Amino acid sequence: MGEIGRLAIVLGFLVALWGIGASVVGGLRRNQGLIASGMHAAYAFSALTGIAVLALLQLLLARDFNVEYVASYSSSTLPLQYTIAALWGGMKGSLLWWTFILATFNAIVQLQNRRKNRDQMPYVTATLLATGAFFLSLLVFVTDPFERLPFTPTEGSDLNPLLQNYWMTIHPPSLYLGFVSTTVPFAFAVAALVTGKLGDAWIRTTRRWALFSWFFLSLGNLFGAAWAYVVLGWGGYWAWDPVENAAFMPWLTATAYLHSVMIQEKKDMLKVWNMVLVILTFSLTIFGTFLTRSGVISSVHSFTQSGLGPFFLIFLGIALAISLGLLFWRLPLLKSRNELESIFSREAAFLLNNLILVGIAFTVFWGTVFPVLSEWVRGVKITVGPPFFNRVNAPLGIALVFLMGVGPVIAWRRASWTSLQRSFIGPVGAGVGTGLAALLLGAGNFYAIVAFSVSAFALATVGSEFWRGMRVRQQMMGEAPWTALSRLIGKNRRRYGGYVIHVGVVMVFIGIVASSVFRIEIQKGLTAGQAVEVGDYTLRFEGVFDESDSHVDIRKARLSVWEDGKQLGEVLPEKRFYRKPEQPTTEVSIWSTLGADLYVVLGSYDTKSGTGVFQVFLNPMISWMWIGGFVLVIGTVICMWPSYAERTAEATSRVPAGSRTAT
Amino acid sequence: MNRKSKFFLGSLVIVVAVAALIYTAARETSAYFLTMDEYAADAAAHSGKPLRLAGRVSDGSIRWDPKTLDLEFAMQPIPPNKAKGAEAVAAEVAPPPPPGAILAVKYNGILPDMFAEGRDVIVEGRVTNQVFEADTLLTTCPSKYEAEQTDPTQAGAEPERSAELAAG
User: Judged by CB atoms within 8 Å, which residues 36-65 of B form the interface with A?
Assistant: First the structure.
């Protein structure tokens, strides 16, 4: 099996090289045979990487510990789902997985564009294959996932217990989907620059792809936060760790792009800016992979010490040089046909939103690479921690949510004073009211009050958009409220789906603000029968009990949860002692409600004195983040769903196109 | 002033604001990230300043009171050699560290899962009267993911929180 896998990646690499050459030469010489050959290479590339993935999977399932990767990341007692997850649990496997996803996307792009964008397609193919070939070259020449050991260990060293978690099985794949799919808009942007066809075509073609990658980046980040929250046991979900930042930065630029692209579609402006954002997003995904894959991570200073780091940097440099060089060459063709007319316009609001999003991305980038920069410049390593990121991003985040409230309602071009009054009087009232309410309820934190206030403002403008649209339909068409609402959304999926996404993002924002500002943390040693108060809740330690199986020994503590003298339920935090890596791990127990999470960690238990040491966090409104995530999914589905007009257009275009090829 | 330069000016204001935010926040929250050796080379200069220090927990130095959650341990430099796992290294007879290279650390809180003698840790806090008062205690993963384990300020080892990187 290993040999088949090895053969598949070597062949895949060669096929990709051929495909790149054939596509570029074919494109330049307009040689249809070569172009078709490049296309076939793309299909073959996806098939070969697919075979390699299956081969590795087969080795994992067969528990062939002679293979170094299998021995390093699995064991004979590892449950099935985590054995599959081990496919992307290690570096080599994750690189292969990455390549496979990219190859699959490439095949899909080929299928989608069989009869569209024929001039650009050779360059799209070449860009996608070049990126794929780069990743595969690492596996072929540097770190072989099918490498065999000189001996066969009787047992593998197992997947890290921290990774043996539900969220961890779905977090990396969704992040990969997000990361990898940014390559598609990038490839189309490069093709547009090469061919000089800089109109709307490439943007329309990649609209769904951009949304797709934004969606999976969002989910990947949220899943990662959920994993950190549930597994790591320090009470939080985000530590501004370089790994997290690596996934957050492309999300920011992708968000900026999704907004600024609307300005290009509507007003034919910001063309260069959009190109830059697409290039930046792709570059940041490669940079993120570099950060996570090179070992540069915990100290970003050791650029030269890892095996793979330099390769990523070289690839990143080449990709940036080519794409920015092309952009510079095509600058004369990218002139805007319009100008901003007023600061009180939707264009201005979107431009501002873009500046802030890119500003946040830059902040995160700066904080992440700061240790490296300081060492280069001053010879000492200086780190900035979470306080840096929080302090810079709190005002920027608030400004962003404020713009989320302004953008959707303000008029294009130039908003008149009366229209501003009409649109915003209600939402501003809601915002101010919420701020006052928060103040009266004792929210003593300035940032929190402002944050809740702008959140209410943003939610109110979105709500008023739905309300007004629905009222108009009710009056004009005489429809029932629900029919009016669903038709309103159905006729403008992108717009109203976008609003729903805004609601989800604001909910996530509220969850972040409340849980970071109003969090309570208590550490206490308790003997059985003793209780501790946390906010409005009381926790009573009832005792411990032990469980064990062949894999792990578990000690559970039982605590009852009380509020106002009523027992609500119980929490069971655990300490686990895995046999294999002989490592204690902490399993937190969470009592979750809409208002707050009670997050209980068993620190230790002293059998002699019967004292359990607990760390308890009261995290207000954290569940809003996860619910906001669901809302975001719903919104994205609404956006992505093909509209009636599109479906009929597809159907009609398919018929003549099909008959054309038949002749 | 025409419209275009007005917008340019507006954008400039935002860029400057972001830069100012970054500058002030970086100045107030940054900390030196040092290895024990680097710290020992100029201990007096770092006294009382925010620090992030990487070192190894000395054998037999851990004192922990589960009632008060007070933790004390001694930290020593991480020997520079080894491409082995932390367990293997811990089992090895470590040469005694040079006198003066050991720093007492105080911390209050629950012990991280991987905290043990001979493990590499990163502490954040400041030194007062020759004692490092840590607000944060990060343990580095034992060589579960990657075979090479060097000191925690270098490749391969990562703070516990970022264990995600192996898969992410």
Answer: 52
What φ, ψ does residue A85 adopt, rounded to 5°?
Answer: -65, -25
Contact across the interface for A392 and B25, Cβ inside 8 Å: yes
Domain A1-164 fold is Four Helix Bundle (Hemerythrin (Met), subunit A) (1.20.120)
Regions of chain A with pLDDT less than 50: 297-305, 655-663
β-strands B63-65, B51-57: how paired? unpaired
Mutation site for A-interface testing, chosen from B18, B114, B120 by largest number of A Cβ within 10 Å: B18
Note whether B168 contacts A611, CB cutoff 8 Å: no
B66 and A163 within 8 Å at the Cβ level: the answer is: no
A24 vs chain B: nearest CA distance in angstroms? 33
Q: Do A162 and B159 touch (CB under 8 A)?
A: no
**C-alpha–C-alpha distance, residues A46 and B53, integer Å:** 47
Residues 6+ apart with CB under 8 A from A663: none
Whether B68 contacts B34, CB under 8 Å: no
Q: What is the pLDDT of residues A593-641, one digit of tens each?
A: 999 999 999 988 888 888 888 989 999 999 999 999 999 999 999 998 8
**Partner-chain contact A301 B111, CB within 8 Å:** no
> In this predicted model, what pLDDT tens digit does every residue of A424-436 receive, in sequence order?
888 888 899 999 9
CA distance A549 to B69: 31
With bands split at pLDDT 50, 70 and 90, how would you rate the model's confidence at B24?
Answer: confident
Ranges of each domain in chain A? 1-164, 171-333+348-385, 391-516+629-654, 520-623
Measured CA distances, A213 to A182, A288, A623 (Å):
6, 15, 24
Please tell me the distance from the alpha carbon of residue A124 to that of residue A209, in angstroms, as a whole number. 14
Q: Chain A residues with CB inside 8 Å of B154's CB?
A: 299, 301-302, 305
Q: Which 8-state DSSP code applies to residue A67?
A: B
CATH 1.10.1740 fits A520-623, yes or no: no
The span from the CA of A574 to the CA of A586, in Å, is 6
Nearest-angstrom CA–CA distance, B77 and A643: 64
Question: Quick one: which of A235, A273, A326 has its CA closest to A590?
Answer: A235
pLDDT tens for residues A147-170? 998 888 888 877 777 777 777 778
A461 is written with which tokens?
A: 């403008």
- Helix (H) or strand (E) holding B107, with range, is strand B103-108
Q: Which of A452, A520, A11 is nearest to A235 (CA)?
A: A520
Number of neighbouring beta carbons within 10 Å of residue A588? 20
> For residue A152, which amino acid is it?
T
C-alpha count within 13 angstroms, C-beta hemisphere, residue A483? 8
By Cβ distance, the residue of B22, B34, B122 closest to A366 is B22
**Burial grade of B168 (CB within 10 A; 0-12, 13-18, 19 or more):** buried
Q: Please name the residue of chain B whose CA is at the shortest distance from the CA of residue A236.
A: B161
Q: Which B residues in the span 111-130 are in contact with A, Cβ-Cβ below 8 Å?
A: 111, 113-114, 122, 124
- The per-residue DSSP string of A496-553 comes to HHHHHHHHHHHHHHHHHHHHHHS-EEEEEEEETT-EEEETTEEEEEEEEEEEE-SSEE
- Contact of B5 with chain A, judged by CB distance below 8 Å, is answered with no
What is the DSSP code string of A219-250? HHHHHHHHHIIIII-SS-S----HHHHHHHHH
- Which chain A residues touch B18 with a CB distance below 8 Å? 359, 362-363, 392, 396
AA identity, residue A338: N
Q: Report CB contact under 8 Å: A392, B158.
A: no
Residue A504 has which token pair?
């989800």
Contact A97, A36 (CB under 8 A): no
Q: What are phi and psi of A496, to 5 degrees?
A: -75, -30
Using an 8 Å CB-CB cutoff, list chain B residues near A606. Answer: 66
